[in-house]
Amino acid sequence: MPMTYETFTREIARLNDVLCSINLLTWDSRTMMPAGGVESRGKQIATLTGIARDLATGDALQKAIEGARSELTGVPADDLRLRAIETAATQTATLARIPASLVSEAAELKTLAQSAWARARAADDFAGFAPMLERTMEMQRQIAGAIGYDEHPYDALVSTYEPGMRWKRLRGLYGELQTALLPLLDRAREVRIRSDILERSYPVESQRAFSVRMAQRMGYDFDRGRLDNTVHPFEISFTREDVRITGRFRDTWLPGGLFAVWHEAGHGLYEQGVSPDLTRSAFTADFVNLYAVGGASFGTHESQSRLLENRVGRSRRFWELHFEELRQAFPDQLSDVSADEFWRAVNAPRPGHIRVEADELTYDFHIMLRSEIEAGLMAGEVSVGELPEIWAAKMRSYLGLTVPSDTLGVLQDVHWSSGMIGSFPTYTIGNIMSSQFFAAARKDQAVETGLEIGDYQPLKTWLNDQVHRHGRSRSPSELLLAATGSELSTEAYIADLTHKVDELTL
Amino acid sequence: MPMTYETFTREIARLNDVLCSINLLTWDSRTMMPAGGVESRGKQIATLTGIARDLATGDALQKAIEGARSELTGVPADDLRLRAIETAATQTATLARIPASLVSEAAELKTLAQSAWARARAADDFAGFAPMLERTMEMQRQIAGAIGYDEHPYDALVSTYEPGMRWKRLRGLYGELQTALLPLLDRAREVRIRSDILERSYPVESQRAFSVRMAQRMGYDFDRGRLDNTVHPFEISFTREDVRITGRFRDTWLPGGLFAVWHEAGHGLYEQGVSPDLTRSAFTADFVNLYAVGGASFGTHESQSRLLENRVGRSRRFWELHFEELRQAFPDQLSDVSADEFWRAVNAPRPGHIRVEADELTYDFHIMLRSEIEAGLMAGEVSVGELPEIWAAKMRSYLGLTVPSDTLGVLQDVHWSSGMIGSFPTYTIGNIMSSQFFAAARKDQAVETGLEIGDYQPLKTWLNDQVHRHGRSRSPSELLLAATGSELSTEAYIADLTHKVDELTL
């Protein structure tokens, strides 16, 4: 049988199916699975991941890549089929450079390290976790070495999440943000805000109903998705036709539940908006991380969630339009609150220790701190033993806070125990991009009018057209350039946060 | 690397993981999946099934089987490892005999045939479905031929669901049942029963709560399981640590919801009770049907569900013990009903057209009718075009009913459109076995005392020990013989139904 482009697409489609199945195993383990299933689920995911790796790096696909290349000799260089082939070739080559033994060792270590981390966090005992973290970091250094890099070992890892991103560039962005945000934060600290109104008793079923209604208005399609409860909300998809979001509602903290749903709905809009032509293609999966996803990068994905959550959901206009509906859902709790007070409350700067609870003005400092530590660990300039000390020093310097415990400090996130080194920067990249995309979208009069009257369809249409439909067929910088006319730049983000502080301090 | 028994178990464990993943894809598609996911889910299941087939029939496993055989030369013949090897060898050889092209053709046809069936059923148009059914039957005949058989083509298919079962033996069993049940049915028809009390308005949440409470009392472990809503209730597992059941509750038909939960809990008890030593082994999967399951056969599995549903849940003692608790859940609806009246109502003979709504006295006639048609189709003695006519004749002869439409007749079940020929007999085999196992269990004094006081733990322990823990390491007849001292026999079942009619007509 001659190897043709057709063979290539069939192999890639099969690989997509396996990756989507892994996604379902993951989704289920975090939403539905009974407690007893943990161990066997781990094995199921490991086996399917091994199969996916074999498919991605095995002879059949590699020969199909060769065959498809030959068949398409001479077609114009911008033909999307060529890009599909080269995308798959590059990514599977990166994957193949990481020895299978290292992958399975890392997977085994992850299970041990996560449970060591959970114990250490509960006991506030960093020393108990340190040896496991040391091994995890050593393994990540080996993986970085296997992948290869020009400038800095951290680049190898960061670029698996954000293609093309380097530590040098990140440091530049972080510097710009520090310069701009620290004075803003000082100004915002002066503001007096009634945050306590968010901590009244808000029945979760009404929270859920309101958040769902708004998510639908923003364009999330429940015929191709669903919302379930989980511990740490996430979005995950099994092709564009089945894109699920999760949430977590707490009775006494209203914004937690609402904004998480809109955040995940932003991710969901991205996946639901990928062009149907790309389904099960080289542009709907990440063949390095072996993950079915239609978004161009972690940062690009985060830009869409942040856009809905912060640029739309935390805007003044949003609450002028929708606070009355929220008050109808909670008439007693919100009887003495105005739309303006509510908007202020959900935007209150609250410098704190926990990243996932951080407001927009402090969030990026949590990321900078972690990125700097990760880069230092990868370069061998920082040792695991020093982490609590370095953490405390950076927290004092960035946010003026004294770290009370390792649990509220270096032990707070699951990422390091999972070996996910290099993903934190994509949160800040996402924040930056969200403002760039939003600013560009608002130049479209229909989008601007829609935002003014609470019709989010034009915004969705713009995002579908400029971002979502392309799946992974464009790189993050190509998407940005085409949609906004500019490369990644902190300008729009800083402008948005400055505008917000101006409004808050008026 | 030398191929050893260790290699064999590792390959088999991987295959189990893939089959468990397929089970999860299936479970999700019938409980959680949004409507949009149908098409891509079909592809995911097809891809994983193809991978499972490749693993089962591929070189790695076959060489591992050879290696393990050599390694274990000389061990005693009853060593369970030998049986594991031979079970896997025999089943994968059967699977390999069915050409891959036939499997994928059958899978493709299934999708088309199911939707043709659904349309035909809605329009009461058998002729519209007939061509598709003709192709399905032709394919099943080819599959039967590929698998091979000694006496009758139907045997090849039946034995994939019920190892060792043949059409000749089935006809013998059916004859015995007809002889015994027809007079019982005539006697039972005379009984006047207040069935209307079951059709009052019973809020589904209370139905669910009561059925769950009783399922727990029967021993179903919710830490390793869960109950969800679906259209056609089923049980499915992903190792013994995660065994899920499903139900369907209707406001105005109380027994439908309750008994379905206990039925599925009976299946669930089986899977949850498989010995942990067997997890991910050759004894926890069906390598012909490519399905992760710990039960010895479809019939054996059904015996466990029928045992809880009918032998326990429909017994007089059960309702003497638990009716008061049910009445507390529905105080208004059941205020004028006695335990005895309720027991009679859930045992009322109701000859009708629909198999899944049939009572115990008529259920097996629905199975006989279908088995006879299937055997005739496989032998080429019956043509698809004749089916409505044959169906009507048999329905008249067995239950004295005139078939009003194809929707209530030949089009009622999904099985034929799915190409599941040969599985219907296992329902009757399950009924027969359920009485054999139950009679044997009751010889244990602790079981009998438990049933008398509503403590179902001793029964569960007996079933765990005699049936469940063995997984698929014993054949159905070995299980029966060891547990009951007898081969498959209708005696106990007929005795149970006779006793029931005696009680009802008292």
From TrEMBL, chains A, B:
It catalyses: Release of a C-terminal amino acid with broad specificity, except for -Pro. Transmembrane segments: none annotated. Pfam families: Peptidase_M32. InterPro entries: Peptidase_M32_Taq (IPR001333). PROSITE patterns: PEPTIDASE_M32. Keywords: Carboxypeptidase, Hydrolase, Metal-binding, Metalloprotease, Protease. It comes from the Bacteria. PANTHER family: CARBOXYPEPTIDASE 1, METAL-DEPENDENT CARBOXYPEPTIDASE. This is Metal-dependent carboxypeptidase. It comes from Rhizobium halophytocola. The lineage of its organism: Bacteria, Pseudomonadati, Pseudomonadota, Alphaproteobacteria, Hyphomicrobiales.
